[in-house]
Design brief:
3-stranded antiparallel beta sheet; 2 helices
Length: 128
Amino acid sequence: MGDASFKTCTKCGERWDTREAFLADPSLHLIGYQVNFRKLHTGILLFNHSCRTTLALYVIDFRDLYDGPVFVERVTGSDQCPGMCLHQEDLGPCPARCECAFVRHILQVIKQWPKSPTGDQTLVKAAR
Protein backbone atom coordinates (compact mmCIF):
# COMPACT_ATOMS: atom_id res chain seq x y z
CA MET A 1 0.00 0.00 0.00
CA GLY A 2 1.46 3.38 -1.00
CA ASP A 3 1.01 6.79 0.56
CA ALA A 4 -2.04 7.52 -1.60
CA SER A 5 -5.24 7.87 0.37
CA PHE A 6 -8.54 9.64 -0.04
CA LYS A 7 -8.10 11.98 2.94
CA THR A 8 -5.93 12.38 6.03
CA CYS A 9 -7.03 14.35 9.08
CA THR A 10 -4.90 17.45 9.40
CA LYS A 11 -5.07 17.33 13.19
CA CYS A 12 -4.87 13.72 14.40
CA GLY A 13 -3.45 12.02 11.30
CA GLU A 14 -6.28 9.52 10.87
CA ARG A 15 -6.34 8.37 7.25
CA TRP A 16 -9.14 7.11 5.04
CA ASP A 17 -7.90 5.10 2.09
CA THR A 18 -11.12 5.39 0.11
CA ARG A 19 -14.01 7.78 -0.16
CA GLU A 20 -16.33 4.97 0.92
CA ALA A 21 -14.35 4.46 4.14
CA PHE A 22 -14.46 8.21 4.74
CA LEU A 23 -18.22 8.44 4.28
CA ALA A 24 -18.86 5.31 6.39
CA ASP A 25 -16.82 6.54 9.35
CA PRO A 26 -19.13 7.36 12.27
CA SER A 27 -16.55 9.82 13.63
CA LEU A 28 -17.22 12.15 10.68
CA HIS A 29 -20.28 14.36 10.21
CA LEU A 30 -21.19 16.58 7.26
CA ILE A 31 -21.75 20.06 8.71
CA GLY A 32 -21.65 22.51 5.84
CA TYR A 33 -21.34 23.45 2.20
CA GLN A 34 -19.55 26.54 0.92
CA VAL A 35 -20.75 27.26 -2.59
CA ASN A 36 -18.50 28.60 -5.34
CA PHE A 37 -20.91 30.04 -7.88
CA ARG A 38 -18.17 30.54 -10.50
CA LYS A 39 -17.08 26.88 -10.44
CA LEU A 40 -19.60 24.67 -8.65
CA HIS A 41 -17.22 21.68 -8.64
CA THR A 42 -14.84 23.64 -6.42
CA GLY A 43 -17.44 24.28 -3.75
CA ILE A 44 -16.35 22.90 -0.38
CA LEU A 45 -18.03 20.26 1.75
CA LEU A 46 -17.19 20.55 5.44
CA PHE A 47 -16.97 17.58 7.80
CA ASN A 48 -16.39 17.60 11.55
CA HIS A 49 -14.11 14.85 12.84
CA SER A 50 -14.24 13.46 16.37
CA CYS A 51 -10.77 14.88 17.10
CA ARG A 52 -12.44 18.31 16.98
CA THR A 53 -11.22 19.49 13.62
CA THR A 54 -13.06 20.35 10.42
CA LEU A 55 -12.03 18.74 7.14
CA ALA A 56 -12.76 20.36 3.78
CA LEU A 57 -13.22 18.48 0.52
CA TYR A 58 -14.22 19.69 -2.92
CA VAL A 59 -17.59 18.85 -4.47
CA ILE A 60 -15.69 17.27 -7.39
CA ASP A 61 -14.56 14.50 -5.01
CA PHE A 62 -18.22 13.43 -4.76
CA ARG A 63 -19.51 14.39 -8.22
CA ASP A 64 -20.11 10.81 -9.36
CA LEU A 65 -22.63 10.31 -6.53
CA TYR A 66 -25.14 12.11 -8.76
CA ASP A 67 -26.04 10.96 -12.26
CA GLY A 68 -29.21 12.95 -12.90
CA PRO A 69 -29.79 16.08 -14.94
CA VAL A 70 -27.69 19.17 -14.36
CA PHE A 71 -29.58 22.32 -15.22
CA VAL A 72 -27.73 24.96 -17.23
CA GLU A 73 -29.22 28.03 -15.61
CA ARG A 74 -28.62 29.21 -12.08
CA VAL A 75 -31.69 30.77 -10.46
CA THR A 76 -29.89 32.21 -7.42
CA GLY A 77 -31.51 35.45 -6.32
CA SER A 78 -34.72 34.86 -8.29
CA ASP A 79 -38.21 34.09 -6.99
CA GLN A 80 -37.58 30.40 -7.71
CA CYS A 81 -34.54 30.27 -5.40
CA PRO A 82 -35.05 29.47 -1.71
CA GLY A 83 -31.50 30.73 -1.00
CA MET A 84 -30.22 27.50 0.52
CA CYS A 85 -26.76 27.74 -1.05
CA LEU A 86 -26.25 31.08 0.68
CA HIS A 87 -26.38 29.44 4.10
CA GLN A 88 -23.40 27.16 4.75
CA GLU A 89 -25.19 25.09 7.40
CA ASP A 90 -28.33 24.46 5.29
CA LEU A 91 -27.84 20.95 3.91
CA GLY A 92 -31.40 20.23 2.83
CA PRO A 93 -32.55 19.34 -0.68
CA CYS A 94 -33.45 22.22 -2.98
CA PRO A 95 -36.60 22.09 -5.13
CA ALA A 96 -35.37 24.68 -7.66
CA ARG A 97 -34.52 23.73 -11.23
CA CYS A 98 -31.12 25.33 -10.84
CA GLU A 99 -27.55 24.68 -11.93
CA CYS A 100 -26.68 24.26 -8.21
CA ALA A 101 -29.31 21.56 -7.56
CA PHE A 102 -26.98 18.63 -8.28
CA VAL A 103 -24.82 19.59 -5.30
CA ARG A 104 -27.88 19.58 -3.04
CA HIS A 105 -28.56 16.00 -4.21
CA ILE A 106 -24.97 14.98 -3.41
CA LEU A 107 -25.42 16.40 0.09
CA GLN A 108 -28.44 14.12 0.59
CA VAL A 109 -26.51 11.06 -0.57
CA ILE A 110 -23.69 11.85 1.86
CA LYS A 111 -26.09 12.48 4.75
CA GLN A 112 -27.79 9.12 4.15
CA TRP A 113 -24.56 7.15 3.67
CA PRO A 114 -24.59 4.15 6.04
CA LYS A 115 -22.05 4.42 8.85
CA SER A 116 -19.87 1.42 9.69
CA PRO A 117 -19.14 0.36 13.24
CA THR A 118 -15.82 1.60 14.60
CA GLY A 119 -12.94 -0.67 13.81
CA ASP A 120 -13.73 -0.77 10.07
CA GLN A 121 -10.86 -2.53 8.29
CA THR A 122 -10.59 0.23 5.67
CA LEU A 123 -9.83 2.92 8.23
CA VAL A 124 -6.14 3.37 9.00
CA LYS A 125 -4.52 5.22 11.89
CA ALA A 126 -1.46 7.13 10.75
CA ALA A 127 1.74 6.84 12.76
CA ARG A 128 1.99 9.78 15.12
